[in-house]
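Example 331.
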Amino acid sequence: MSISVIGANKRYGDFAALDDVSIDIPDGQLTSLLGPSGSGKSTLLRAIAGLDTLDSGTVIINGNDVSKKSPQQRDIGFVFQHYAAFKHLTVRDNIAFGLKIRKKPTAEVDAKVDELLEVVGLTVFQRRFPAQLSGGQRQRMALARALAVDPKVLLLDEPFGALDAKVREDLRKWLRRLHEEVHVTTVLVTHDQQEALDVSDRIAVLNKGRIEQVGAPDDLYDRPVNPFVASFLGSTVRLNGELVRPHDIRIGRTPEMAWPSADPTLDTGVLKATVSRVVNLGFETRVELVAVASGEEFAAQITRGDQNALNLQAGETVYARATKVAAFSES
Ligand SMILES: Nc1ncnc2c1ncn2[C@@H]1O[C@H](COP(=O)(O)OP(=O)(O)OP(=O)(O)O)[C@@H](O)[C@H]1O
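Predicted structure in complex with adenosine-5'-triphosphate:
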């Protein structure tokens, strides 16, 4: 089911949490709302859910104007960062809850719950209580509970926000696989660009209550509309006045080594720079540099393999060149 939000406005006193926001969320896709804290992501999600009312604007789900409808009438599944499970119910009964209150036949409930336990990988834990689960398992239970009633849309507000980095990474892979299996139109709120790039079909970048850009992850990363989107989707540095991604900087011990292709169309200039620090970060190495002529500080990201070959040391003089600069698209 597709979702459209048209001209959404929401103010808290003088402050515009949503400032004339319009977005189309396509059927069956996973769309992330990505932006810094306070940019209006949760406000937009809650407006879609019907948990908050808009000052003005329209929410359309599956072609129907649901703006005046209650959350229950909107047919949505919702999962928050801190999921409130029923502590006195087992995992199985938590997942079955929505089906039981809808008075579904027992055999149907059992079959559906068995299927969902399997999908979220909690079959062996079905007799446990929520307190006996890890944070990641609890969030998977929350997702199963939300999916149990076959919602038209699934709304996730930082569902993995409270978990540590490794568990988050596992869960987002799992979420992606789950999405490929069930294909429910899903909207995920996150402030984590890695998470958004990893799981989304489309990303909407929000800033100060407005949508800056909507598109496929690669579009936003490679063709951002402005410096805000470029910087929010991944780190950027300024080199010769241009916005550059650190992995698009080539370093060599001679000017020629920094520019082996000698392609004149890529003339962004070779900079003489001093290495101020070399930091190994697992697969990659961050090389912090200071341009000799301007004193401008910047960082380049090279592979660990390249660093092993170059063996750069703090204090050395090297040559750096941007192999690609951010070109802002028009739309
Ligand atoms: N009930 C409220 N009363 C007053 N201001 C509010 C209320 N709810 C949200 N806001 C403000 O609206 C703005 C947008 O909030 P929102 O929760 O949508 O941001 P967010 O992008 O989801 O941020 P975060 O990632 O920190 O949750 C914030 O500046 C917030 O302080």
